[in-house]
Amino acid sequence: MLRKTGILVLALGSLAAPLQAAEHYVLMMGIGYFPDQIYPDVGDTVRFVNESDLPMSAVATDQSWSTGLLLPAGQTVITVAEGMTQTFGDLLTEGSLATGVIDYTSEPPLDLERNLERNHEASYVADPVPDTTQN
C-alpha cells in the first residue's frame, strides 16, 4: 500500500511541475530591433543582444523596465511578467527611432513550431503553355 501511495505522489508531483520557460531573442541592430515584435508567454525570458556597433537600449515606453545601455556585443535578460508594458524603444540613445513590442497577450501570426516543415506538396498542375503555332 505504501508503495502505491509513493508512486501516486510521484505521478501527481510530475503533473504539477511547472513548464520550462522559453527564451526569446531580440537583436539590437543599430537602426532597430530584430524581430521588432515577439510573442512570449508570461514567465518566458527575453534576451536582448546588441549586435550593432553602437550602444543601444530597450526601455518600456512608461520606463517601468529597461535593459540599461548595452555596449556592442552586450546582452541582458528580462523576464516577461503579467501586466508589464509591452512597447519599448531605444530611449537612452539620442535620436534613436527603434521600437519594439513584447506581445504576451496574442498568439503569434504564424505557427512557429511547424516552421521547418515543408510548406506544400506539389498539389497543383501548371497551366499548359499555349500553342502559338495554330491560328
UniProtKB/TrEMBL annotation:
Signal peptide (from-to): 1-21
Entry keyword Signal: yes
Record key words, sorted: Signal
InterPro entries in alphabetical order: Cupredoxin (IPR008972)
Protein name: Plastocyanin
Organism this protein belongs to: Salipiger profundus
